[in-house]
Amino acid sequence: MxxxxxxxxxxxxxxxxxxxxxxxxxxxxxxxxxxxxxxxxAMPFAKRIFEHLARPLLxxxxxxxAAKMIAADPTSGFFAPIKLAFYLALFxxxxxxxxxxxxxxxxxLYRHEKRLAVPLLVSSIALFFAGCAFAYFAVLPxxxxxxxxxxxxxxxxxPDPAKYLDFVVVIFLAFGLSFELPVAMVIVVAVGxxxxxxxxxxxxxxIVGVFIIAAIITPPDVVSQxxxxxxxxxxxxxxxxxxxxxxxxxxxxx
Length: 254
Description:
This protein is mainly α. It has one domain. Helices cover 78% and strands 0% of the residues. The protein has 10 helices and no strands. The protein has helices spanning 8-42, 46-53, 55-58, 76-105, 111-150, 161-178, 181-190, 196-201, 203-217, 222-253. Helix 5 crosses helix 6 (161-178) and helix 9 (203-217) packs across helix 10 (222-253). 23% of the residues are buried.
């Protein structure tokens, strides 16, 4: 009997799968190498970077406290700057990581999908950085000013460095991800789930939802909740304008 001839389509599928896996491994290695490089560069400056990160709080403390934090855990003062250097490495190298992901996904996209994806990727990076910058320069000083204003005189406000870092990272993530609202709106319109007119008609429900989300993901103080909800309302209007711009382009490409 003659030996069965292997199916060429199965062999090509296996080869294609192996090529995709090798490409994925290459992109992962390059992405991690970029994070490691930034981490190595940032590590010698971790202490100074943490001092800059602590300024929004230290600037609001009374002069008699000498603008200092208190490490309740003996290792807190050591590990907090190291964790900050790692977070900073992820933050700075995020465009490089997104670029590696884009290089892996882009060959499988159509030309009109690439034309829409590139502005969305750039906008998402810019909006995330804008949200973090807004949190650092505007939100954190206002929040700590409110906290120190209402803290009784018999209470000394001097948080642990590790807990302060966790608090600030949560604020950065909350504002960075919340500023992605216009990108999310453009995506749901581009895939045909909603229309710009429906988003406009649902503005009232969206505002209520924004305030609910702000109350959930921010610390339990009115200042940070308002400083997140109000920009998100403006970003919602910006998202409607962006959706109206994307929809005619999508129809023309179709």
